[in-house]
Amino acid sequence: MKRVIPEYTALVDILQDAIDKEEDAKRFYLEAAELAQATDVRDFLLTMAEMEQGHADMLAEKLASLKSDQTVMNGILSSFNDEPEEDRG
Description:
The protein is elongated, with a radius of gyration of 21 Å. Helix content is 76%, strand content 0%. It is mostly helical. The protein has one domain.
């Protein structure tokens, strides 16, 4: 099956989509673990769910950092745009 990748316009969109996919995978493994009858299979599926949560957490941290950096950059840029014209060189 070929995966269709949307046309992203920003890194934040890519990261959010990736977080959503990791969370979907985590839910899949948790639901499968509930159905598993063998303890070793259930344990494996729960481990997989934990790994997916770790991925989602890592991506969420990167997304928060990126948004924070963008907020700071927007503040810096807006300070230049708000400068009175006679003060500009």
